[in-house]
């Protein structure tokens, strides 16, 4: 008599193995299911293609449901795109009660300019070349579009013409990408390859370099800083002082007048624009004896590129500080204690003024110096350093006051000292 052989249910066999041994390795994926704590809950132990291991709950106590959930978790995990990671990162920023204004403002940039491109790129395939592809995608001309705004009872329609982003904009957006990937790399389910974050952070080093001649490379290495001539410096200072005198007490043109004091203090102190001068508070301003009179010292300046330091200003700084106090009092700002000396009217109350490059460029254009220099605000610092060197101030003293090194001054301002040497040789008859 023939014996009948029944084929057992594979799910039932696997369930029996899990109940008997407490764990089972799946054939469909590198996943091990196991139970613990006698609760009946089933957990998964997954291994990524990169060898990374993650344990998580299947949110089920039934074996068939747990297996289905674990396989779905593994597929979602191993196929996760960079775009989905960026979405998780922005959701984490918005949910955090301690997120700063800058972090919150980066969310819209990430959603608009990063997620649409990176949503099709798997995280385990990401490399620095995708950054260059994203840059090309960002530089492609975008079509015009219209958008409606509700203003009171009226609906206004605006026509937008997207502009090609500048390199500085792309650099800032890449910082947001690096921050998001840095956050993701610390997650337990991270699939980011080792070394990829470092490559993306310094992606400019991998861009194809032009094959310049040896002479061109030497010229680039010894490129001089952009500076205002002495006549231009005086004309700029007079223009800003006249504009302030014209509207003194009128409670008008706050931003342009504040920009005027900002620029004049740059020209008399040599500080770097940005945090170094923007974070100065009234408690950092001191009157110090200089010769037979008084001068202004800033102790310390803001935490800029090379950190806080003491700065000694030209004697003109006394009049600049007095005029700045009058301007702030005119608009109701505090001028003592921990208040910033350059407060903003657009940002939160008490916050320092932001980027004023656009405002200063308009002033430069009105003076007829359009395209004269690449970075007008930094030209104020370079003009200050050049002025000190032409007065034969020791290079070491200039370096200390300006927060830079002697090597940097000798490299970029050597032409100033060279003129003095030539003049000395000529005047002495050699």
Structure, explained:
This protein has 430 residues and is of the alpha+beta class. The chain has three domains: 10-78; 82-206, no CATH class; 232-381, Intergrase catalytic core (hpI Integrase, Chain A), CATH 1.10.443. It has 18 helices and nine strands. The chain has a four-stranded antiparallel sheet. The chain has a three-stranded antiparallel sheet with strand order 7-8-9, with no helix packed on it. Strands 5-6 form a two-stranded antiparallel sheet. The protein starts with 9 loop residues before the first helix and ends with a helix.
Question: Which key terms come to mind for this protein?
Answer:
430 residues; 3 domains; disordered N terminus
What topology emerges from the helices and strands here?
Elements: H1 10-21, E1 23-25, E2 31-35, E3 42-47, E4 53-60, H2 63-78, H3 82-95, H4 101-113, H5 115-118, H6 129-139, E5 145-151, E6 154-160, H7 167-185, H8 196-201, H9 214-221, H10 230-246, H11 254-269, H12 275-278, E7 285-290, E8 293-298, E9 311-312, H13 317-330, H14 357-366, H15 376-390, H16 395-402, H17 406-412, H18 414-427
Antiparallel strand pairs: 1-2, 2-3, 3-4, 5-6, 7-8, 8-9
Helix pairs in contact: 3-4, 3-7, 10-11, 11-13, 11-15
